[in-house]
Design a protein that fits this description.
Helix content is 37%, strand content 16%. It is of the alpha/beta class. α5 links the parallel β4 and β5.
């Protein structure tokens, strides 16, 4: 017989990125990767997961009721602003698309159950080799998440958007010391993040879609485009999300610059 009241002392961290993890050549900006790579984690406690899901579902149902975006269409920021695959976005004005992104960000930032961690690489300035952009970002994110969990005296797992699966899986196993040889990366201790990462298809996870909103608006803050300032795209993260960023000894305003 199951107990009448269940408790779950564990955190979930949903991870998504903005930009690509390839090399950037400023001499040929149109024929190279993005000048940035951003990795963000949206942290929520298991006991607040169901409540938070309902907040997202209510928001999406409201958008559908207002004839903005059907409930079953993925909320994907880069595709929304520059549509290529999802025709539903083209029926919405650009101004309204930014308003929807800002409204989603407000739902995230207004929920005290959430905490944000983020790693930002400015490829123009970073000394990190291009082939390590992804793994270095993962290491920073795991270190910050582990520090967060240590403070909370609890454990947590990580759920990634389903991309770069092989690289992520291999590197995380090295971080946790769960690889075939059982060796961990020297000098790095991750004690409170448990198990191999879980990979989710973004269209099936509103939490991954929320992480996408965080990554995209952080990108607009750190790497603003003049043409988008009229929509206040560069202010969304600061105005709606900054308040729930995690701060620790090596994190500047919840954002790790590498």
């Amino acid at each position: 017989m199951l107990p009448s009241k269940l408790t779950a002392a564990m955190y979930f961290c949903y991870v998504d990125e903005s930009g690509d993890c390839g090399a950037f050549n400023p001499d040929t900006p149109k024929n190279t990767g993005s000048p940035y790579f951003i990795l963000v984690g949206l942290i929520v406690h298991a006991e607040k997961w169901k409540f938070s899901l309902e907040v997202f579902k209510t928001f999406r149902k409201k958008l559908a009721a207002q004839s903005y975006l059907p409930y079953d269409v993925e909320f994907h920021c880069s595709e929304m602003i520059d549509p290529h695959k999802i025709k539903a976005y083209t029926q919405i004005s650009v101004a309204d698309r930014w308003k929807m992104i800002e409204a989603f960000a407000e739902k995230i930032g207004g929920n005290d159950a959430f905490t944000i961690i983020a790693s930002v690489i400015n490829k123009r300035e970073s000394s990190i080799p291009p082939n390590e952009y992804l793994t270095a970002s993962i290491t920073k994110l795991y270190h910050a998440y582990d520090h967060f969990l240590k403070e909370k005296k609890q454990y947590g797992i990580v759920l990634f958007d389903r991309s770069n699966v092989g690289t992520i899986h291999s590197h995380v196993r090295k971080l946790l010391g769960t690889g075939a040889e059982g060796d961990a990366i020297p000098g790095i201790k991750v004690n409170h993040v448990i198990e191999d990462p879980i990979f989710r298809v973004s269209v099936d996870s509103m939490f991954i879609q929320a992480a996408d909103v965080i990554a995209y608006t952080l990108k607009e803050k750190e790497f603003p485009q003049t043409s988008r300032k009229k929509y206040h795209a560069d202010r969304i993260f600061t105005n709606k999300l900054k308040r729930i960023c995690y701060c620790s000894g090596d994190v500047n305003e919840g954002i790790i610059m590498t």
